[in-house]
Structure formats: C-alpha cells, structure tokens
Design brief:
39% strand, 3 helices, five-stranded mixed sheet, 23% helix, alpha+beta, four-stranded mixed sheet
Length: 125
C-alpha cells in the first residue's frame, strides 16, 4: 500500500467547502456538481462525498454524525495560537466547538464537530 485518505459523508458540499476552507484546510478539487470535494492537510487527503451517493456506493445506511460516531480524527497543530485561531472560527462556520482550548494530558487542544457531526481533535503535540 502507498497512501491512505479518509472519506466522509456530508449533507451539503457547498457548506463543507465553506467550513473546511474557513478553518484553513487546502481545497484540492471537486464541488457540489461533482458530489464530492477534496481537501489536503500536508500530504493527506480528506474526501467528502454527498451522503446519499456514498450510502449507495457502500450499500448500507449511514449513521447521523450528530447522534453516533465511531471515529475521532486528530490533527496536529504547530502552536497553541493556531488552535485558538481555528477554535474561534468553528461555530461561525456551522460547526460546534465541543470544548474551549485547554491543556489536558500534556496536550493543548480542542475537540469539535463539523456541520455533519463528524468529530475532530486539533492538538499541539
């Protein structure tokens, strides 16, 4: 195997673009007309697909990210200030900041939910 990426179902591709560009991720292609959009963080790719299309593709029902999650994706930030800056944008962009920036277990960071309920951490390691 050479690489990996993560696929996320979303309700609204345009909202997904606004949210992830707003918190500083790099747009890498796609859009609402394509039913998918890609973002890059370093060399890693995050793919977001229109929820009904990905459900048909995998042949099963998807959970609502607002009520059930099995995965939390974590990102490493360079500084506490970077975490603070992103934290200040999340609610305005349609996400939900689940805790204010804080230090815990030797790491400074936040946890948030994107507009579709997917869970993420951003921490300074």
């Amino acid at each position: 195997m050479n690489s990996y990426w993560l696929n996320f179902p979303v309700a609204d591709i345009d909202q997904t673009i606004r949210f992830y560009e707003g918190i500083g991720m790099t747009y890498s292609g796609g859009g609402a007309a394509d039913g998918r959009v890609a973002f890059k963080i370093g060399d890693q790719v995050l793919m977001f697909f229109q929820k009904d299309a990905i459900a048909r593709n995998i042949g099963r029902e998807l959970t609502d990210g607002h009520t059930a999650n099995e995965t939390i994706v974590s990102f490493d930030a360079k500084t506490n200030e970077e975490v603070d800056e992103i934290a200040g944008k999340i609610n305005d962009l349609g996400g939900k900041l689940l805790n204010e920036p804080h230090e815990r277990m030797g790491y400074y960071g936040i946890m948030f939910q994107d507009p579709d309920g997917h869970l993420f951490n951003i921490i300074v390691m």
